[in-house]
Amino acid sequence: MSGERGSISIVAAVTIAVLAALTMGCADLTRALVAVGRADTAADAAALAAAQELAAPSGSVPSSVAADYAERNGATLVECSCEPGSSEAVVAVEVRVGPMLLVSGDRSVTGRARAVVAFPQAGA
Q1: Residue 73, Cα to own-chain centre: how many angstroms?
Q2: 18-59 pLDDT tens trace
Q3: Average pLDDT value over all residues in the chain
Q4: Where are the domains of the chain?
Q5: How far apart (Å, rounded) are the C-alpha atoms in residues 18 and 99?
């Protein structure tokens, strides 16, 4: 029996290490999911702002309006297909995830959105 003395310490140490790794993994996953939500929100706002500029021009360039709204929501505009005179705005934005606990390197997520400008038909 004296040969088994201290074996619980090894089991406890392994259990604590596994729990710590799982906790860090959950923290990384949560950080990534929050960034995905922010990217989706920023993409929606940017697409709607560009579509608004297409529908009721104020003299601004739709892509610059989209970039402004993306930045206000913590994202960077990556792509904007919203030329003046078109009837839709398709945007892509990027949000930086930040440092993660288990994965090294800088990570970012991309959000995409599309807003269509629909004018009422005459006589409808």
Answers
A1: 10
A2: 999 999 999 999 999 999 999 999 999 999 999 999 998 999
A3: 91
A4: 2-116
A5: 21
